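Table S2 (continued). Query chain:
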Amino acid sequence: MKICVTGAEGFIGKNLCKHLIDMNHEVTKFEYAKNSFPDPSLYDWVIHLGAISDTTERDVDKIMLQNYEFSKWIFKECNSKGVNFQYASSASVYGPYEKFGEDDPKQPQSPYAWSKYLFDRWILQQKHNVCVQGMRYFNVYGPREEHKGTQASPVTKFTKQAKEDGVITLFENSDKYLRDFIFVGDVCDIHEQMMLHVKKSGLYNIGTGSATSFQTVAEIIAKKYNADKKYIPMPEELQGQYQEYTCADITKLLNIFDIQFKTVKEYIEGV
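Corresponding output:
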């Protein structure tokens, strides 16, 4: 297939492009700040990953321009030219709720989460002539996310701290913060399999259906690298905007195909 990937230089974008190329697809990479968007009619699919993904960003106009308005424009271009469309949503749309079915209530807690929620809602209201697949990512981790700094997953941050400093820094009460961590390789495989085998439009949770605490992740990494753990208060700018718990309801995804997910423990021990 011929596929255009936006946000190709981001964490998931880099991994997805590599995966698709390795699987013999023809991939064009697009970056919002670097080049003009190509003619969608050249491709079988456009995968729109590009976004301002920093959950601490407070410039609402900037976020809405790229994450919402530009996303709408890309979809309209694809729809008008008959090109199938996948896009990245986010589990952050659920907010503090502890039910995570695709149709369960949402309460976004940050400008980033709001931008994703509003685009999800907008696109579901559109008439379209193509296959549209929304991928609502939970907590993706894996290689090629080192550049994300403080926005990297706990798996990557804790591993870096253990290797470089011998001390893993966690927020206080980290045993109470649980996330549905999903390996980026599994995410890439889901993207490809959906394009190849699923012809129906829809919005899908992309997680494992299992939650792991930050404390557990830190303990696995500390054991491997013989590192200590240090606890700090949560920064003020994150208070009230930090989800305590995420765990995807993946019933809809599993109704399509069976997936054997890599666990956090398997990934850490194999790195």
